[in-house]
Amino acid sequence: MVLSKTASESDVSVHSTFASRYVRASLPRFKMPENSIPKEAAFQIINDELMLDGNPRLNLASFVTTWMEPECDKLIMASINKNYVDMDEYPVTTELQNRCVNMIAHLFNAPLGDSETAVGVGTVGSSEAIMLAGLAFKRKWQNKRKAEGKPYDKPNIVTGANVQVCWEKFARYFEVELKEVKLSDGYYVMDPEKAVQMVDENTICVAAILGSTLNGEFEDVKLLNDLLVEKNKSTGWDTPIHVDAASGGFIAPFIYPELEWDFRLPLVKSINVSGHKYGLVYAGIGWVIWRNKEDLPEELIFHINYLGADQPTFTLNFSKGSSQVIAQYYQLIRLGYEGYRNVMENCRDNMLVLKQGLEKTGKFNIVSKDNGVPLVAFSLKDNSLHNEFEVSDMLRRFGWIVPAYTMPPDAQHVTVLRVVIREDFSRTLAERLVIDIGKVLHELETLPSRISAKIVLANEEKDAVADKDKKDVQKETREIITAWRKLVIQRKKMNGVC
Ligand SMILES: *Cc1c(COP(=O)(O)O)cnc(C)c1O
C-alpha cells in the first residue's frame, strides 16, 4: 500500500523555488516579520536581491581587495566565529597580530633593536588607525603644553586639502582644527613649503599622504621633514609628522625602496596603512605603527582584565573578527617580499598599459603620476559638449564601475575619472577597458550634447514666445549651469571614493 500525504503550505521543499509563497509576497522592509521562513527561502530571496549590487571585481573605484587565494578564504571561514578581543582564549591569533605589527614596522624601517618588539596595533582600517595616531599626537602635545603652563585648548593639524575624509572625521570628533593647504591647478597634493608655513605652536602634527586618494601621487615627505627640522630648530617647537600610507605603505617598500618617506626620516613618529588595500586582504583591517614607545602616551593604553589575563589595548572598539588578522599574516608569509614586489610590479605594468591606451585616444589629460599608487586619473581635454560623468555612466553599461569626481579647493573646477589597478585587474581586463572607453568616446561623438541641447531648447522657446526677452534665455542658461553644478556636487557626495 502506498501512503500519500498532502504537502503542507510550509513545506518549501516540495514547491518549485520560485512559486513558493515566500517569493510571491513582498518582504517587509520596516518591521521584523511576525513569523519565521525556511532557510532555503531566506537564502534565495537575499541572494537574488544582492545580484543587483555591482560586481566587486569590476569595481574600479576602490583600492580595497576583492580577491584572495582559495586557501586563504578557507582560513578566513575557519576563523569567522572567533572574536579577536578574547585574547586569552585565542592566544595564537593575538600572537599572529603581533607578528604582523613587527613585520610591518620593519618594512617601514622602525628603529628597532634585534630583540625589540614594535609598537603598533591592528585596527578595522586606516580610519581607526588615524583616529588612534591623531589622539596620541593630541595627548602628547597637551601634556607638553600643560607642563609648560601654556594654553592647550586650540590644537590644530596641518594637511593638504586632498586628505581622505577620515581626517575630517578625526578633526570633528576629537575637536582638533584642520588646517588645509589648498591645492592648485595641476598640483593636486600638499605643498610641503606651504604646509610648514602653516605650522604654529598649536600644531599637533603635519599629516602627509603617501598615495593621495585623488590621483595616487606620493607627497614629498622627505622635503617636508627637512623643512620642518629647520622650522623646529628656529622656533624651539618639535612638531612631528604622521604619514597616512593607507594605500602607499604596501607599495613603496617593494617598488620604490630608495624613496625615503618612513621612519628613516627623524620627524616621522607614526604611520598608518590599510591591510585591506595593497596589504592584499579583504575589507576590515588596518595598521598603525609608532616609531617608539615614547610616541604613544601610556595613559591611552587600557589594561583590561577580561576573561583571564591582563591585556593592554589601544583601539576604539571592543569585539571584532579575527579572520582579517589571520589573512594578513597569511599574505605576509605566503607572498614574502618577493611576492609583494611581483604583485606591485604587475599592477604598475597594467597601469601603464591603461594609461598609454588612454593617451592614444588623444582625448584625455592624465592627472596621475607614473610613480605612485597604480591608478590612472584622467579628465577630458574638452568637456564642453560631454563631461566625465557621462563617460562614467556609459561605462557602467559595459559592466565597469569607474567613478568621476571633482577635485577639492582650489582645483574644484577639475573633474576626473579614476581607475584603480588592483592585483586582480589583469592585462586582458586593462586592454578590454581601453577598447570599451574607445567605444564610449565614439558613441558620445554621435550624441547631441546634453548641455548644449538644453540651451538650444531655451533659445527655441524664446523664438516661439514673442515677448520673451533675452534676459529669460540668459536666466535659463544660468539655471542649466546651476543644475549641472548641483549634479556634480551631488555626485561628489555619492561617489564615496575609498
Ligand atoms: C583609504 C584611505 C583612508 C581610509 O582608509 P580605510 O582603511 O578605508 O579606513 C585614509 N587615507 C587614505 C590616503 C586612503 O587612501
**3D shape:** globular
The number of strands is: 13
Mean pLDDT across every amino acid position: 90
Largest sheet: 7 strands, mixed
Helix content: 40-55%
Proportion of strand residues: 5-15%
Number of helices: 14
Q: What small ligands are held by the chains?
A: pyridoxal-5'-phosphate
Give the class from helix and strand content and strand pairing: alpha/beta
- Cα distance, first to last residue? 67 Å
Low-confidence stretches: none
Question: CATH superfamily assignment of the largest domain?
Answer: Type I PLP-dependent aspartate aminotransferase-like (Major domain)
Under CATH, the topology of the largest domain can be stated as: Aspartate Aminotransferase, domain 2
At the first level of CATH, the class of the largest domain is Alpha Beta
Number of domains: 3
